[in-house]
Every structure is written in C-alpha cells, then in structure tokens.
Design brief:
With 279 residues, the chain is of the alpha/beta class. The protein has eleven helices and twelve strands. It has a six-stranded mixed sheet with strand order 9-8-7-12-10-11, sandwiched between helices. A four-stranded parallel sheet has the order 2-1-5-6, with helices on both faces.
Length: 279
C-alpha cells in the first residue's frame, strides 16, 4: 500500500509551495467579495486577494465545501493506492467544514481508513497540524500513530492574534465571546485567542506596537515550543513581530505565511497571528 495521504482545507493558509512539498491535498472553501465571482477568487494567492480586497468596499463572505468535495478527494486517495487519509480541518466552531469532511468520509467506513480531525484552530495553526501529519506519513508512521499524535497536538496548539479592528469579526459573525471588547474605547488594538475552537478576547492594548509586544510575550509564557507559525494579513510590520518572537523560537524554523481570504475575511487586513504547538 502507498503512503497515507494528508488532506486539509484552505483555512490552513498553507502556501502552494508547502502543499506541494508535503504532498498535502487542499479542499477549498469558497469566498465571495462583492461582484467578484467565487470561482475567480478560488485560484488567487493570498497576496493577490488583499490587493483586490483593499480596493473593494464589500465584506468578503465564505462558505464551507460540500461533503462531495471531500468524498472525491478521499476516493482519489483510495484509487491511487494510498493506505489511508488523515484530514485536518478548520475549527468546527468557525465553519461547517469539519462536518462536511465527516459526511464525505462516511461512505468509506469499514472499507478505507479516513480520519477527520477537528483542529479547533485556524490559519497556520491548522496548517502546522497538517504538516505534522504529512511529515509523520513521509517517515512511514502507521495510520493510527499519526492520528493519535495529531489529535494529541490539537490540545497543545494555540492561536493568538492582534487585529487592526474588530469590525470584520463583528460583521462576519465570528465574534464568539470577543463581544466583550465592544463598548470599550475605539482606539484599542484587540488581542484575541481561540479556546475550544471559538474566538475569545485575550487583551486590550492601546497601540499596535504594544499589541505586538504582548503577542510575542505570550510565547515566552507558554513554555518550550515544538513548532511555531506566524500568519499575517498583508501586515507591513510582520518582520518587526518576527524579531520580537526570535528569543522564544528560531526565526529560521518559524513558518511564515500570508493569511488568505478564508480567515482574513473575518479578521481583516493587518492581522498578525502567532500559532505555536507546545512540546
């Protein structure tokens, strides 16, 4: 039998080069932005999306894939002689993608191993879990061992982010308990996190610089890190943030990626996310 195939969705914000490097198959969520057709946006890079979004007054909207999209990818893996599929999805607290993947896997029960794992995370935190699964598969790890390791690391994976504004979260309906931020001073720079797969408030900072310092400081308080990814939504100060993170994790080993439209539609441009997995 062949290697175990790893599948994820484009909420993971993994660039095409890393998907290809690790042999990860991506099932896309759709994005709509004003009059721009979803099919047109499906193929654009994250960087190109922000060029389009900054010129539009419309708010981007996203929709989960149909179960059939996952079914087709799982079936292709079986046809290719793979020994199983490990699918890591966007948090079920943010999207119906996990449920769609589960539904797409149902016809394979008892016939072909498909494990669907809820990352309880988003953006490059989800991406790190998919990469971990792919690296284990490439090293010849058994299907059950890969699933067990990734599921254990879901509990050690964190998402922290600083936003330019809460407006995108509010209008996109993904605010969670971060509603607590509203009614405070408009000048704050909110720091958010994800707990149990949903958005929660973490801190209020008065300036962008302080929000970045606070965000980096979290990494020091969490303890030794096994992996670290930093995602940014067209943020021009991401290098400043990476320098702040360097005392806690090697910059050369930090995965840096642009946050695309799936997550960016709900956080807005300028977002920076720190996504560690603890040892």
């Amino acid at each position: 039998m062949g290697l175990i195939r790893v599948v994820t969705d484009n909420g993971s914000d993994l660039p095409a080069s890393l998907l290809e490097l690790h042999g990860i198959v991506e099932v896309p969520l759709d994005v709509r932005l004003g009059d721009t057709d979803a099919a047109e946006l499906r193929g654009v890079s994250a960087e190109r999306f922000w060029e389009i979004a900054r010129r539009s007054e419309a708010l981007a909207a996203t929709s989960a894939p149909a179960p059939g999209a996952f079914h087709d990818v799982f079936a292709a893996a079986a046809d290719d002689g793979c020994s199983g599929v490990v699918c890591v999805t966007l948090s079920s607290g943010l999207s119906a993608t996990y449920q769609a993947a589960r539904a797409g896997a149902e016809p394979f029960a008892g016939k072909f191993p498909v494990a669907v794992i809820d990352s309880l995370a988003a953006t490059v935190a989800e991406g790190l879990l998919a990469i971990e699964a792919a690296e284990l598969a490439a090293a010849g790890a058994a299907f059950d061992d890969i699933v067990a390791t990734v599921r254990a690391d879901v509990e050690k994976t964190f998402v922290y982010g600083t936003l330019e504004t809460l407006e995108y979260l509010r209008r996109g309906g993904r605010i969670g308990n971060a509603q607590a931020f509203f009614g405070s001073m408009l000048s704050i720079k909110p720091v958010i996190t994800m707990r149990a797969g949903v958005v929660e408030p973490e801190s209020r900072q008065r300036t962008r610089a302080r929000s970045l310092e606070y965000l980096a400081g979290i990494l020091g308080r969490l303890g030794p890190l096994k992996r670290l990814a930093v995602g940014h939504a067209d943020a021009d100060d991401v290098d400043v943030f990476l320098d702040l993170c360097a005392p806690y994790f090697s910059r050369s080993e930090t995965l840096v990626a642009c946050i695309g439209p799936i997550i960016g539609a709900h956080t807005g441009p300028g977002t920076i996310a720190a996504c560690p997995i603890l040892q």
